[in-house]
Amino acid sequence: MSTENRKLINIATAGSVDDGKSTLIGRLLYDTKSLTTDKLEAIERNSKQKGFDYLDFSLATDGLVAEREQGITIDVAHIYFNTEKTNYIIADTPGHVEYTRNMVTGASTSSAAIILIDARKGVIEQTYRHFFINNLLRVGHVVVAINKMDLVDYDQQVFEDIKKDFEALIEKSDYSEDQVKFIPVSALHGDNIAGSSEIMNWYQGPSLLDYLEALEIDEHEDNSAARFPVQYVVRPKTEAYHDFRGFAGKLYGGNLSVGDEVTVLPSFTTSKVKSIHFFDQEFEEATPGSSVTITLEDEVDVSRGDMLVKSDELPKSEKQLSATICQVNSKPLRLGTKYILQHGVNQVLAKVDSIEGLVHTDFSGTEETEQLKLNDIGKVNFRLSKPIHFDPYGDSKSNGSFILIDEASYDTTSVGFIQ
Amino acid sequence: MKNTFVPNPKEAESIHIIREVAAQFEKPVLMFSGGKDSITLVRLAQKAFYPAKIPFPLLHVDTGHNFPETIEFRDKLVEELGLELIVANVQDTIDQGKVQEEKGRYSSRNSLQTTTLLDAIEAHKFDACIGGARRDEEKARAKERVFSVRDDFGQWDEKNQRPELFDMLNGKIHHGQNVRAFPISNWTELDVWEYIKTENIKIPSIYFAHKRETFVRDGMIWTASEHVYREEHEEVKERMVRFRTVGDMTCTAAVLSEAESLEEVVDEIKASTISERGARIDDKRSEAAMENRKKVGYF
User: Fold this and answer.
1) pTM
2) A129 falls within a domain
3) How far apart are CA A238 and CA B269, in angstroms?
4) Boundaries of each Phosphoadenosine phosphosulphate reductase domain copy (chain B) (predicted)?
């Protein structure tokens, strides 16, 4: 598969309503020739129908009737395009405050974010929120696209002022200056999107696409040791594989090799990796992101939800948990509420022990609260029915995050980032 | 040098999803149309559970208007891999008086499939249906979750979807609900073709250029068949064509092509300026054709 030699970059977009996110994505698709003739014709037709004298690229991404009706993005859309070098997946997330949860959703799988700012409006409250979420989720790279430069006469001073305001935000965050890039653009006219702008010749940096193409992404963004949560026990019970008992899962963190001493969590029994299988082949070593099947030397008890780790690199195992929570459901999180906590593929029961505070998304600190409402971000302590085996979110996105599931509705109500 | 396994990220993600379906649900089924996407799903499912067999059956909703080559391929594949196949016939649903055959110029059994599918889900008590839909296919599909909860009427509530974070999938549902699971959500058409090529996966012959009796309507090439409505002035001609997507004859248009090998097919897809679903007659019905079908239970 040629995606093996093309890198994959997941990008989330963020911006307020009418900042032009959908237009920017449409423009990227258009300029990289990713829009097929029939889709382009549909855009032309619909733009004309709506009486626009320009191409409304948002029509390429707003897929729901309710979205086209209102001209807004309600839910995350995933947009795909390829260049010679890279496969891109863009999570186009809504800008409305009430859809913050969808922004968190989009950012959770992304290694880069595009934050749009309307050049006429500059840094606004929504910008804080967008940047804060990227900071919280540790999205590795942020590009701030200062859009609608055409509406401020392509004025360099406007760009510099917004950049300065934003740099004050960076200082309050965990980001370093070199993780954040500023680009003046006009999505509508295509300035600095896929090619450099002739009008803004005061800007010498890369276009948005050039910047993305040059990004060096650490695909797994995981500083943890090898973590292998067991998804499924493979027991063929056929003549050829009568005694085969393999543990299927996806490897996170570090590599795992045949012969490695491993500990099975939660039982803490130990064994050695006997073989590593992928389909009809065997390997001596698996790298992070591998959906492989592993067998062990000894007949140890391993079931779904258990985790295999190297014996000298154990994660934390605790029944108490402190985490930053983002509430993604309209049912508020309150003191004493019980949830099903899903950590990777493992599920335990969790009870809200205390709510430390509501976190302000403008980096100004926390305030006391009794509950977390939809789209709130807060610090919460939990008590668990059984220990889970985790790394801090800063070390491992996969082993340091969890979701909470409502016991009655089964809805996903919250996402947590373990401290 | 160690023999080290380096994953293809999209393949690894799909296998992860398929295993979650098998682990989280009691009675999953893989929706199999005989098209390239569901064939890819079968290969991914093989990889997910190897050396064990795929632990769920295949379900084919047969409109009765399928290309014979597809049906032949389906039966051979099932036999070779020792899989269980369940066929649900749209004809039965028509005979039961639950749906009515469409008439006229654009008559198709495509939308009738929904009722047959929902009946099959109910009859077999399937709680998860694995499908080969991809988000790049169509803009309503771009909004779809990997685990998409449907109510006991099979309905999709597009404004109230469960957020999906990282690769944690919440498959908890109430009795009567079902989940549509889409393991190759993040693949593009080109990804699928390149995968089929690299893996050397067998596909039905209609994907390669062949001579076929066709006629042209609305700029699209239709198959001339007893199942496809045709007016007298619509002239049938033999053309060298292939198919990019396989629905049944009444909703899938052919494209002119000389591509006879997988290499040539991949090159053709790369050079094409028309989207895959540009040849789907069922999508041309209205701007929201897919969304409307999905809302009532189409896969």
Assistant:
1) 0.92
2) yes
3) 41
4) 28-253
Backbone angles phi, psi at B122, to 5 degrees: -70, -45
Which of A268, A292, A310 represents a domain boundary (last residue)?
Answer: A310
pLDDT digits (tens, 9 = 90+) for A233-274: 999 988 889 889 999 999 999 999 999 999 999 999 999 999
Q: What is the pLDDT of residue A313?
A: 96
- Put simply, the answer to whether A289 touches B158 (Cβ < 8 Å) is no
Residues A140 and A159 in one domain: yes
CA distance B115 to B121: 10
Residue of A61, A80, A236 lying closest to B188 (CB–CB): A80
Here the tokens at position A154 are 């392509």
CB A234 within 8 A of CB A259: no
Tell whether B76 and B108 lie within a shared domain: yes
**Residues B48 and B177 reside in one and the same domain:** yes
Contact assignment for A36 to B274 by CB distance below 8 Å? yes
- A54, A165: one domain: yes
With beta carbons under 8 A apart, name residues in chain B contacting A89.
186
Residues A302 and A335 in one domain: no
Q: Which structural domain range is residue A302 located in?
A: 227-310
pLDDT band at A8 (very low <50, low <70, confident <90, very high): confident
**Binding-face residues of B in 88-127 toward A, CB within 8 A:** none
Asked if A32 has any chain B CB less than 8 Å from its own CB, the reply is no
Residue B219's domain comprises: 205-284
Same domain, A169 and A104: yes
User: Do A325 and A210 reside in the same domain of the chain?
Assistant: no
Residue B2 belongs to a domain: no
CA angle (A227 as vertex; A140, A344 as ends), nearest 5: 75
**B141 and B214 together in one domain:** no
Give the best residue of B168, B186, B187 to mutate against chain A (max A CB count within 10 A).
B168
Contact A229, A315 (CB under 8 A): no
3-state secondary structure string across chain A: CHHHCCEEEEEEEECCCCCCHHHHHHHHHHHCCCCCHHHHHHHHHHHHHCCCCCCCHHHHCCCCHHHHHHCCCCCCEEEEEECCCEEEEEEECCCCHHHHHHHHHHHHCCCEEEEEEECCCCCCHHHHHHHHHHHHCCCCEEEEEEECHHHHCCCHHHHHHHHHHHHHHHHHCCCCHHHEEEEECECCCCECCCECCCCCCCCCCCCHHHHHHHCCCCCCCECCCCEEEEEEEECCCCCCCCCCCEEEEECECCCEECCCEEEEECCCEEEEEEEEEECCEEECEECCCCEEEEEECCCCCCCCCCEEEECCCCCEEEEEEEEEEEECCCCCEECCCEEEEEECCEEEEEEEEEEEEEECCCCCCEECCCEECCCCEEEEEEEEEEEEEECCCCCECCCCEEEEEECCCCCEEEEEEEC
The pLDDT tens digits of the residues spanning A304-352 come to 999 999 999 999 999 999 999 999 999 999 999 999 999 999 999 999 9
Report the CATH number at residue A87.
3.40.50.300
- CB-based contact (8 Å) between B46 and chain A? yes
Residue A406 has pLDDT above 70, yes or no: yes
Q: Both B31 and B139 in a single domain?
A: yes
Let me know whether A266 and A165 are in one domain: no
Mark which of A310, A333, A351 sits at the end of a domain: A310
Q: Does B166 contact A109 at a Cβ distance shorter than 8 Å?
A: yes
Residues A198, A139 share a domain: yes
Cα B255 to Cα A45, A211, B191, B265, B272, distances in angstroms: 23, 37, 20, 12, 11
Positions of chain B with pLDDT lower than 50, given as ranges: none
Number of domains observed in the structure of chain A: 3
Residue A221 within a domain: no
